[in-house]
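User: Could you check the structure of this?
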Amino acid sequence: MADSQPSLTVLLSELLLFIDADGKQWEHAADECEKFSTRLSTLDETKMYLNSAMYRVRAEMHQNIVASIKTALASDEHTQTHAAP
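Assistant: Sure, the predicted structure tokens are below.
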């Protein structure tokens, strides 16, 4: 009987796609905050730039997670393909 569960590699690939797309959405939100802030009072503009900075940090965190996992996967794949039989 074949296993109907997706492989760990498939699940991890889907998770990476999700995290990457989510990071891009955080970056887009930061851009939109900055565009919108130009129409606000100085105090509100400052608040929007603070939000934008926080969104960019979130986007960077997502990018770092994706990069770390891809590096780990590549290292693991390299180890598996070069392992002694």
